[in-house]
Design a protein that fits this description.
The chain is of the alpha/beta class. It has helices at 16-32, 43-53, 69-76, 89-92, 94-103, 114-131, 144-157, 183-194, 198-206, 241-256, 272-289, 292-300, 302-305, 317-321, 365-380, 394-398, 403-409; strands at residues 6-11, 36-40, 60-63, 79-84, 106-109, 134-136, 160-172, 181-182, 225-227, 230-236, 262-269, 310-311, 323-334, 351-360, 390-392, 413-421. A seven-stranded parallel β-sheet has the order 3-2-1-4-5-6-15, sandwiched between helices. The chain is 43% helix and 23% strand.
């Protein structure tokens, strides 16, 4: 019956990410007997997606439009968890959040847009708590591997962690070259960089009190550097990982009185030429994104301004299936915990742990596995998620659940590489 809630409804199912989500949902439907539906503006396009990716599964088709509030509520009231694949979220995310709160429906998404994510927390955390629902953004490659990788490292450390540095590596075994990102991901980045100046004011409102100063302080490394953790040349990673991880650490401190970990995130490139070219393109991207005419140029010519890494068609199946990622985590701290999280250790850190998260097809296939398993975790393990609802980070929501174990079963692997006590 249409009145019965499905386990998931995938909104934006006809988009590039949405199609991958439907494919993963179809696999989970066979493995775990979950029920799901797909939603978008055009019924015919939705039927085509179901025919291609879930031909032998009973999938409910729902039509809704972001401009029609009533249609959004009719969509969300048919789901236990709304899986939102419709971005950029700064333009399209908030109406869905409102509908989910009105119909008491959990929501997960793959937003890597800090301004959007943190503004939703500021505006709707209390309302989500009162509705008894969880709203968890950044449930894809931004930022499940990094955020849960830090949680995993803390759990395995067996002591007290002071700082964690992360190093992201990409590689490909594909015999053909081509784009590695879809235009939608790129569009979100353009507007995210354009409005990055909003974050300082937003965070002052969101966090009225600063975290306690931690010693020894973790300083950012030089603009370009080398490290034993990864082969090549590294620079600061400009994505959402660090902002999401720091929100998780603040939550753990406020909720459980756990010492917050200092975090710095980096990305590694194999050659000096590649990292220099990336910096040059990045500076051009940053400058142009600040002006309307510049944004129009960036959006009109994505392939040119991304060095060929972005197209409107997105990466081919061969490129996706042969792309790999790994993130190495270097944790430093002490073998013993102090009584209070704000207490200062008299000695320098005496313990180090190296861990790793790795997988295949991070941008879309892997992202959708992370997204759908996050939704399943809300369905199956809500008793292990803190609070009775609210706007949470992946680490805050899923740190005490079996999500890491479930991801390991899908070849998104979390492992300890080495431990050293001084």
């Amino acid at each position: 019956m249409a009145s019965e809630r499905l386990d998931f409804v995938i909104f934006g199912a006809t988009g590039f990410t949405g199609k991958h989500a439907v494919q993963v949902a179809a696999q989970l439907a066979k493995e775990k007997q979950i029920t799901f539906g797909v939603c978008g503006r055009r019924k015919q396009a939705l039927e085509a997606v179901v025919k291609e990716f879930a031909p032998d599964i009973d999938v409910r088709i729902i039509v809704a439009d972001l401009k029609d509030e009533e249609s959004l509520q009719k969509m969300t009231e048919q789901a236990k968890v709304l899986v939102n694949c419709c971005g950029p979220y700064r333009f399209y995310g908030e109406p869905v959040i409102k509908a989910c709160i009105a119909t008491r429906t959990h929501q997960v998404d793959v937003s890597g847009e800090p301004q959007y994510i943190e503004s939703i927390q500021l505006k709707y955390h209390k309302a989500a708590q009162e509705a008894g629902i969880y709203i968890v953004s950044a449930c894809g490659f931004d930022s499940i591997p990094c955020d849960l990788g830090i949680i995993f490292t803390q759990q395995k450390f067996n002591g007290e962690v002071n700082s964690i540095e992360t190093y992201l590596n990409f590689s490909s075994t594909s015999k053909v070259s081509g784009a590695i990102l879809h235009y939608g991901t790129y569009e979100s980045a353009v507007y995210g960089v354009a409005h990055s100046n909003e974050l300082r004011t937003l965070r002052k409102k969101l966090y009225s009190e600063k975290l306690p100063p931690l010693k020894p302080k973790l300083n950012r490394r030089s603009i370009i550097h080398q490290t034993s953790l990864s082969t090549g040349w590294s620079m600061v990673f400009p994505g959402a990982d660090r902002s999401v991880a720091l929100r998780t650490q603040r939550y753990l401190y406020e909720k459980y009185k756990q010492r917050p970990v200092q975090v710095q995130t980096y990305v590694t490139f194999k050659s000096l030429f590649t990292i220099l070219a990336t910096i040059i393109f990045g500076m051009m991207f940053l400058l142009l994104s600040k002006f309307e005419f510049g944004r129009n140029l960036l959006l009109k010519y994505p392939a040119f301004f991304s060095g060929g890494t972005v197209t409107r068609e997105g990466p081919t199946a061969e490129v996706l299936e042969n792309s790999h990622f790994s993130i190495r985590f270097k944790a430093e701290g002490w073998t013993e915990k102090l009584a209070e999280p704000t207490d200062t250790h008299k000695d320098s850190p005496n313990k180090q742990l190296i861990s790793k998260v790795s997988g295949v097809n991070p941008g879309y296939g892997g992202t959708c596995i992370m997204l759908l398993l996050s939704a399943m975790t809300i369905l199956k393990e809500s008793d292990k998620i803190p609070e009775s609802g609210g706007v949470l980070t992946p680490g805050a929501a899923f740190g005490k659940t079996s999500l890491i174990e479930e991801l390991n079963k899908k070849d998104i692997r979390f492992e300890v590489v080495a431990q050293l006590e001084k």
